[in-house]
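Kindly inspect this chain:
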Amino acid sequence: MQGKNPLTTMTTAVAIVLACGVAAGAHPHVFAEAQLDVSIDGAHRVSFLRHVWRFDDVFSSTVLMEFDTNSDLVLDEKELDSVAATIKSSLAEHNYFQLVMSNGKDVAMIPPARLVARYDNDQLVVLFETQPKGPLDLSGKIAIGVYDPTFYTAIDFTSDDKIAVTDLPRKCQRAVVRPDPNDVIAQNQGTLTDAFFNDPTGTDLGKIFATRLELTCTAR
């Protein structure tokens, strides 16, 4: 396996699933459907982000096998707490795969106080909330999304309505941007080398590929 995937630190068994058939670090091997709720407060600031990720069957079944300590083919509350704690710790160094930018600059986010794991219809579901460290005013362009900087995990929104905004003021326009991969590759050919994708610290290019919510707001 090339590169470092934050989720592979869960267990050796999970790492094997992620590494199976890896030809290049740029290919995702874990897939998840995302839902994102953005809450706006009365001062027209981003209050918090609520993330829900539903993982693919293969990864979910591997987590079940690894964390089912009593071998009853069910993840009980204690086992799910162990899953959640492991994922939370693993994702911390990657800002929980969050993309939050204000007028082209990264926004610092407070780590989630708690991450919750559930097992629903044979799929692992992860839920957590974060909030900006400082006031995030709706001014100019705000971009919010999710991405894995190591390119091992593909987390995306199956439809635009999976990104919801509560109490968006009239001064703001909402758009879901889905970049064309071919255009992104063409525009960044000079940097897309094997060494680039195999950087264990991840890359910023994922921000360009990521589906994101863009809020464009005028002055009050």
Helices lie at 12-19, 57-67, 77-91, 181-187, 194-197, 205-209. The longest helix spans residues 77-91.
